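WARN  no MSA supplied for this record, continuing single-sequence
INFO  ligand: aspartic acid
INFO  echoing inputs
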Amino acid sequence: MALIVQKYGGSSVADSEKIKNVARRVAKAKDEGSQVVVVVSAMGDTTDDLLKLAYQISEQPSDREFDILLSTGEIVSSTLLAMALGSLGYKAISLSGAQAGIHTDSSYSRARILRVDTKRVVSELRKGNIVIVAGFQGVTGKRDITTLGRGGSDTTAVALAVSLGAEICQIYTDVEGVYTADPRLVPQAKKLKEIGYEEMLELATYGARVMHNRAVELGWLYNVPILVASSFSDSPGTTICKEASMEVKNKVRGIAHDTNVAKVTVVGVSDHPGIAAAIFEPLARANISIDTIVQNASINNITDLTFTVARSDLLKAMSIVEPVVKSVGGKQCVTDSTLAKVSIVGTGMQNTPGYAARMFRALYEHGINIQLITTAEIRITCIISEDRVTDAVRALHQAFELEKET
Ligand code: ASP
Ligand code: MG
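INFO  complex generated
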């Protein structure tokens, strides 16, 4: 019998009516003859609410307690969905991440899945149950509860699909699929029928919020097809798979944007071996991810170094970098947290000249100043002022003719 994994996001299970709607959709998949495993997120803004609650109680909540607290959101929605299926006359059982055999390392709030022990899930499926798994959580070797990082239920779903050998992992959300750009910014944005894993990974990492990037990476690694579709309609959605069709290969496929960008410029450090290591090693130890790094050509052996971090990491990054810069005789650190990233993504850019130039011209024609540029194999990213991000995404959508995309 075919096995499918479905995942429903927080907005799809936000209240009791929506949970009943999800139950009907799950029931339909079961009626169509599949074994069904369902992964759920917490209802609506539950995770944010729990997080706020923790910070009302304590300035620095214990990592362990914090993860147990956040994991309860998904437990609530999984039990309610099991009850809703029960009321419809279906056999269903809810399992926490730990009960479902999701084993992780012990990095609280960003735990990595080490392995999935599928015994319990398989035995419940054999009994004819629809199995509902609480997303976003796992358990360490010492049986402590961990969470997988914000948006982590996608990763739970793909990990289960991989371990159970599911035919497909269906991610149901409040948008109808993956678009050429955020449709709230670009009304002409087109829904893609399919997109390659690599392209989706870049889009997700550079700001497209439709899927967790770790989930895409996992799907890619194990070659599990992923469908992204709406839980509120029967519109076909977007399939993320190995290779998009031949005729759409040689193009920019999508534009991602991200307004969670802050920049730090270290001014006037001497240009000699060891300075970059002195600055970035303590940042790495503090688990701060650095995105773009640019070092200027030096004049009289003095140079400036600029890097970007997520805005939420800026204060922490500054508290680490400022003393280092002083100790190596640097002049000062300047920050700017009103920036945004816009990226064009497409495998077609590989080995094809001209994409960067077209991107820069489109931004120039709209009077948008580029502050930093980074390029990767299938992506070009410009860092610009946050207040121009809508204009930039629209300009690029038009310049690369994405409204013609299918
Ligand atoms: N509930 C968690 C969050 O809001 C995980 C998820 O939704 O995937 O981040
Ligand atoms: Mg959520």
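The mean pLDDT is 94.
INFO  checksum written, moving to next record
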